[in-house]
Amino acid sequence: MKLSKSSIAVLSFVLLGAGLISASYSSKKMSNKTAPPRSGGLASVQFQDRTGSPISSGTCGNCHSGGTFGTSVTIEVKDAGNNVITSYTPGTTYTVEYTINTTSGTPSGYGMQSVILNSSNGGAGTYGTVNTANSQISPLNGVDYFEQQGAQAAGFFSVDWTAPNAGTGDVSIYSVGVAINGNGNTSGDQASSSTSIILSEDIPTSIDFPGNPYCADATNPTPAVSGEQGGTFSAPVGLDINPTSGQINIASSTAGTYTVTYTGSTSSATFDVTIYPTYSTTDAASICSNDSYQFGSQTLTAANAGLNTEVFQSVNGCDSTVELTLTVLPSPTTQISETICAGETFDFNGQTLDASNAGLNTATLSSVNGCDSVVELTLNVTQIDPTLSIGVGELTANQNNASYQWIDCDNNTILTGETNQLFTTTIAGNYAAIITLDGCVDTTDCEAPIFSGISENYSSVLQVYPSPATTILKVDNLNDLVDVNKMEIVIISGQTLWSSSTAIDEISASALPSGTYFLKVRHAKGEEVVKFVKR
After folding, report:
1. Which stretches of 104-230 are assigned E, i.e. beta strand?
2. Same structural domain, 54 and 184
3. How many helices (H) and strands (E) does the chain have?
4. How far apart are CA 355 and CA 2, in angstroms?
5. Does residue 496 sit in the same domain as residue 518?
6. pTM score, whole prediction
7. β-pairing, 87-88 with 195-201?
8. Are residues 313 and 250 in the same domain?
9. Which residues contact 107 (CB under 8 A, 6 or more apart)?
10. What percent of the chain has pLDDT over 90?
11. Of 230 and 370, which is predicted with more confidence?
12. Taking 50 as the threshold, does the pLDDT of residue 28 lie above it?
């Protein structure tokens, strides 16, 4: 059947059981359509709040009237233990139960609608599981409603509800119940008046000491209190706490763990406070002069001898101050001297030294205190000059300041009594000197004296000195000779090494090698010859 607009307007007043919708709904949503039954729920079908709340447009009594059932509605909120509560804990899920009560007659069915609002008249909390048949959750204008989804045979409705977040404050639950007679219209039904209960927000009282646990050198902490304010604080002996503010005096408290009790007029709370000790200790360490010692973040050396301080973290994270006295153990240096002969070796702490190591050598040993002991060895090498200077009927050992023993190389015999640096002989042959110097012994090469090349008629006039000469050779009595026209220094073979056409009484001998030489002076009356030795 197709309804006209005027028919819809008349039918807008039909009762809950009549199965038709209101004119406002039909004109907006259901024009030219079959109207759904209003028993499907006022918020869901008719988009109306009939709970009697601050945002409703009335109650179910606007339409349902004439009945004498003595209808009322009871609202109870129960916790998980099925206990009725009057305050809620934020975020906790509860069960909200609605009971439609009657005092007379026998209704054929029941309906209801409920909304839970905060102080700003917005939806509070969240509906959850619907626990009864013919019940539903219907959104309307941003707010959820719990209502019937058809006539309920029994007057009991139940739904789970999760309380809103902390800080919401008081919430109000509004509800209206209806008892119907089942005559197909709203006459003879009876709605209850709007019923509401208020649930206050249950903020558990608690205390907290931010930063707990504390070190014994920490700043005095003050607690944070949530829930009931204005209570007093107490703690066992050893913890110095202000009973009014709860501030702890760390410096005058003893390290340990204490239970702080906060007592209000209706509630109490406890909190365990721990104070960890700080430490101050002394220590000592020893190092060698060339070593180092790791002391926390510091690398100590001999320059840090004495008192040093470092702050460590204990196992509890508190300061542990350590004062370390650093002692530097001596590392002695010993200087020694040794002499070896050429060709010999010397064992110096595992090092084999020879003539090439002459001079300063260093070895590091371990001393009795575990530190290095430095030994500085000056190695002297006795070198014997094995050469001879050859002269006429003589040989001279070029090594000075030694002991000498001449031998006959031709028959390998000792020449008894020949122990001078200069060896003279009239017998041709090969001779050598055994030289002893600083405990070292070496034998020179075998050489033969010269018996020709230079006149042996030495001058009785001239004298030369010093002999052996080193840098200067002085000549005396040159003035006794007439017309000196040539002076020469020659060797035994007759080779001239120096000459002058004038008389010179001081001759440089620096460039002459060590050996035996002859000074020849030619003058108007003949030639003078003088023998000398250069060292």
Report:
1. 109-117, 126-130, 135-140, 143-148, 156-162, 171-180, 187-191, 195-201, 206-208, 214-215, 224-226
2. yes
3. 2, 42
4. 137
5. yes
6. 0.43
7. parallel
8. no
9. 67, 69, 155, 179, 180, 181, 182
10. 67
11. 230
12. no
Say whether both 43 and 173 belong to one domain.
yes
* Angstrom distance (rounded) from CA 501 to CA 35: 163
Amino acid making up residue 490: V
- The verdict on 75 and 185 lying in the same domain is yes
In what helix (H) or strand (E) does residue 8 lie, and over which residues does it extend? helix 5-11
Contact at 8 Å (CB) between 375 and 362? yes
Domain that holds residue 215: 206-276
Asked whether residue 177 falls in the same domain as residue 95, the answer is yes
For residue 363, which amino acid is it?
Answer: A
Residue 239 placed within a domain: yes
Q: Tokens at residue 12, please?
A: 């807008």
- Residue 212 has a pLDDT of 96
Run of H or E including 360: strand 359-366
36 vs 524: CA distance, rounded Å: 173
List, for residues 267-310, the tens digit of each pLDDT value.
899 999 999 999 999 999 999 988 899 999 999 999 999 999 99
H or E element, residue 347? strand 346-348
Q: For residue 499, how far is the Cα from the chain centroid? A: 87
Mean pLDDT value across residues 390-395: 86
* Helix, strand or coil, per DSSP, at residue 328: strand
Quote the CA–CA distance of 258 and 241 in Å, as a whole number. 11
The amino acid present at 359, given as its one-letter code, is G
The DSSP H or E segment spanning 27 is: helix 23-28
- Collapsing DSSP to helix, strand or coil, 357 comes out as helix
For 322, phi then psi, to 5°, come to -120, 130
**Where residue 10 falls among pLDDT bands split at 50, 70, 90?**
very low
> Could you tell me if residue 491 is inside a domain?
yes
Strand partners, 425: none
pLDDT of residue 454: 59
What is the domain count for the chain? 6
Contacts of residue 476, defined as CB under 8 A and 6 or more positions apart, other chains included, come to 462, 463, 464, 465, 505
Report residue 452's pLDDT band, with 50, 70 and 90 as the boundaries.
low
The answer to whether residues 534 and 466 touch, using CB atoms and an 8 Å cutoff, is: no
In a domain, 358, yes or no: yes
Tell me if 118 sits within 8 A of 171, measured CB to CB.
Answer: yes
CA angle 478, 483, 487 (to 5 degrees): 60
C-alpha dihedral sign at 496, 500, 503, 508: negative
Does residue 255 belong to any structural domain of this protein?
A: yes
Q: Where are the alpha helices (DSSP H) in 85-162?
A: none
pLDDT at 313: 87
